[in-house]
Amino acid sequence: MREKPSVKTRSKKPSCIKKGGLKLKKVKYEDIELFKGINFQATEKVEAFDCAKAHERAFEAMEAGFDIQSRDYNIFVVGHTGTGRRTFVKQLVEDIAKEKEIPDDWIYVYNFEDQWSPNAISLKAGTAKRLKKDFEKLLEEILKALDNLFESDVYQEKAQELKAEYDKKQKELWDEITEKAKKLGYALQVAPNGIMTVPLKDGKKLKQEEVNELPEEERKQYEENSQKVKHIVEGYLHRTRLLQNDYQDEVEKLNRESAEFAIKPAFDKIKKTYKAYGDLLDHLDRMQEDILENLSLITGDDEKQATNLFQRYQINVFVDHSNYNGAPRITEINPTYSNLFGKIEYLSKNGYLYTDHTLIKSGSIHRANGGYIVIEAKDLLRDIYVWDTLKKILYSEKITVENIESRTGYSSLATIKPSPIPLDLKVILIGEPHLYDLLYQLDPDFEKLFRIKAEFDYELENKEGNRHLMLNFLHSVVQEKDLMPLDSEAVKEVLAFSVRLSGSRRKLSTHFSRLTDLLIESNRIAEKQQLKQINADIIKETIRIKEKRLSLDMEKIHEMIENNEIIINTAGEKTGETNGLSIISTGDFDFGIPARITADYSVASTGLVDIQREVDMSGKIYKKAVMTLESFFEARYSKKIPLSLKATTSFEQTYGTIDGDSATVAETVALISSISGIGIKQEIAVTGSMSQKGDIQPVGGISEKVEGFYRACKNKGLNGQQGVIVPQGNLDSLILKDEVLKDIQEDNFHLWTVETIDEVIGIMTGKEAGKLNKNGKYTKDSVNYHVMKTLEKAHKISQQEHDSEEKEKKGK
Question: Could you give the CA distance from residue 718 to residue 714 in angstroms, rounded to a whole number?
Fold first, then answer.
């Protein structure tokens, strides 16, 4: 049996009724009636829902987390799904963030000193986007200014002057060496492969054959002069190179000075606009210098080279807050590594991967920097690298961009390493209680970084203020979802549904998603019936339809009970057999069913044997309950004589694992009935946990269990004697359906509350349990009296067998 968690509560005792000499605590309809004497409002004329009032504990915790500006005071919101925790956090963060200042924008720019480490620059919120446009205009102005410069008459005139001066010096140098060569009997000619030397005689050029035919002395003179001319030519070439270099230097100087003069106004203009940003001004100075140093590439004929060069002058708007009102607040629904921490993208060019500062993409952590980020804890923890990286950036209070393959060391690809950005961020995680507990126990860093625990209660006290708060919630749902309003009786039914969800008449469930679903489906039915308001009948019908949608398993089991395929007796008496109650959960629907529990005994010294426990078909809680039962029997019946019997208990026709302790009372009564020989009323079912002392303790799912036995009795026919015994501590947990309440009111079905096992014995057997007198004997003809009689007989038989065995041993 799977038990729902329950809370032991106290309530006023029900009226006591004497019957057959027994003092029975019978539950009246008035004892379990909901909202007795309470009037409700319709949803039309109430104020909006204030989520903070519904979750004061969580609100105060989160308020403290927001107020404390420290890297350690991040927030973990703990609560069950459906309690409105996401909506609450979203609204609270929205309200807090609006009052905060908008943080700076961030851009990445080319690093002229180290191209592999782009620089991050912060700007006032809303400035980055404008700066990008201004940069685009700046580059356009630069290109236009340079084009105009090199096409201008002034520049062309200066360039021509330089060229003419160079040509003049070049001609003078040529004339000089040709004159020297002529005096040595040689002429100089410019050829495609260099300068040729040609012998001269009497002003006439000689061929080599003619030189060879000259007299030996004259021929040798030509050869000597030939070497001298070569030296003259080499000197000429050297001086020409120096002259060419000087000319190029002068041209570059002219170009640089002219270009600087041409582009300076554009740079001065943007510097004046952004004079408050020192880092940006430094970048502009380096950019201007880089343009002047690369004029030849910019103004050259290679457009591809010029385009690549201009790429470095682009800026990357990394984080833009131009559209924000207050601090950023981001809910990251898919917290993958790249979505949170950004990435560096690559482009494929001619088979190679290429990246630069413009391909750095921000993550939600960067965009939320200076504000708040909300993440589902279970989604965050799916990737260990994401959780580990989040902790590292919170510790370091810096955030950069690094691809996960580089972060984990699985990539040898050369890549850029952007400079880090200071981190000022409040992280809010949302998760289930068990997830918080696991992180707290298993990760020492978790406690240090998430010092604020904001717990969402899943229920409210059922009092006037909270009922009005729930009414506000219903009004807000009606407004938000554009539903029909609810009349006062419909509101009462919805709150009754909330009470049933809580499991206690003293509580209202804050499972807001379930209440919202109920209103949406009720609105659909009301529209089909062409109503203008949702009334109580619509709410009841919606609950019935939804239950029918989910209750196929329940219907099949009760059909088997009705057809005696599962044997459950709802009339008469049987010895050693009781009707226990259990809960079955199908995930989205819980329902109760009766379970036939049988007990028997034989003379032996084995003690209590539970069949489910022996075949390992029971959970730990059930095993504990059986051991408690053993302890109770030993304490009550074995203080003077040992238990000389083998007692067995079993859940009949149960084929799954059994857990929980709510069948302890039923098993105890069945065993006592079997040993005493006194019959048990089969029209009565019982549920409850039991202590070693015989005290009856509350259990979970009490309403479903009562309704489960009621349904079995109704299907087989109500006889006016049937009912259920429940722990006194569960009285406030009884929130029953209308049909059950009606039959209780008309005495067709009954409820009794008990505090001890003796009260249960009295109700189920019709006899007193019996009390010990001064002589250590139980009241004559009581149930306990008959139990002790059987145990004494069993002990006597066992002793006789033992003595007989001892005599046989001695005889041998």
Answer: 5
Q: What secondary structure letter does DSSP report for 677?
A: T
DSSP 322: T
In a domain, 467, yes or no: no
What burial class does residue 656 get, using C-beta atoms within 10 Å of its C-beta: 0-12 exposed, 13-18 middle, 19+ buried?
A: exposed
Domain that holds residue 655: 567-796
User: Into how many domains does the chain fold?
Assistant: 3
108 near 120, Cβ under 8 Å? yes
> Which of 699, 694, 686, 697 is CA-nearest to residue 765?
686
pLDDT of residue 456: 85
Give the burial class of 255: count Cβ atoms within 10 A of its Cβ; 0-12 exposed, 13-18 middle, 19 or more buried. buried
Query: Cα(256)–Cα(265) distance, rounded to whole angstroms?
Result: 15
CA distance 703 to 697: 16
d(CA 31, CA 657): 35
Q: Which helix (H) or strand (E) holds 453?
A: strand 452-455
Q: How far is CA 568 from CA 147, 194, 468, 706, 716, in A?
A: 100, 119, 44, 15, 10
Last-in-domain residue among 310, 336, 354: 310
* Nearest to 391, CA basis, from 332, 333, 449: 449
Q: Can you tell me the distance from the alpha carbon of 736 to that of 701, in angstroms, rounded to the nearest whole number?
A: 11
From the first residue on, what is the mean pLDDT of each consecutive set of 10 residues in the chain (812 residues)?
35 40 67 76 67 75 88 91 83 89 95 94 94 93 88 87 88 86 82 80 77 78 82 87 89 87 92 94 94 84 77 94 92 95 89 89 95 94 93 94 85 86 95 93 93 88 86 88 92 91 89 91 95 94 93 91 91 93 88 90 64 53 72 78 76 68 85 90 93 89 94 93 93 91 93 93 92 85 88 78 69 62
Q: Going along 176-271, which residue ranges are E strands? A: 186-191, 194-201, 204-205
Helix (H) or strand (E) holding 664: helix 664-676
Q: Determine, yes or no, domain membership for 724.
A: yes
Q: How many CA atoms lie within 13 A of 232 on its CB side?
A: 24
Closest CA to 1 of 705, 558, 568: 705
Q: Report the sign of the C-alpha dihedral through residues 777, 779, 780, 786, in that order.
A: negative
Phi/psi of residue 430, each to 5°? -120, 130
Question: What Rg do the C-alpha atoms of the chain give, in angstroms?
Answer: 48
Does any domain span residue 371?
yes
Whole-number Å distance between alpha carbons of 298 and 285: 18
Q: Which of 422, 455, 488 is the last residue of a domain?
A: 455
DSSP string, 91-143: HHHHHHHHTSPPPPEEEEE--SS-TTSPEEEEE-TTHHHHHHHHHHHHHHHHH
Q: What is the pLDDT of residue 15?
A: 39
pLDDT value, residue 178: 85
Query: Half-sphere exposure of residue 156, counting CA atoms within 13 Å on the CB side?
Result: 5
- The Cα–Cα gap between 658 and 649 comes to 13
Assess if residue 706 is contained within a domain: yes
CA dist., res. 127 & res. 372, Å (int): 21
* 242 and 362 both lie in a single domain: no
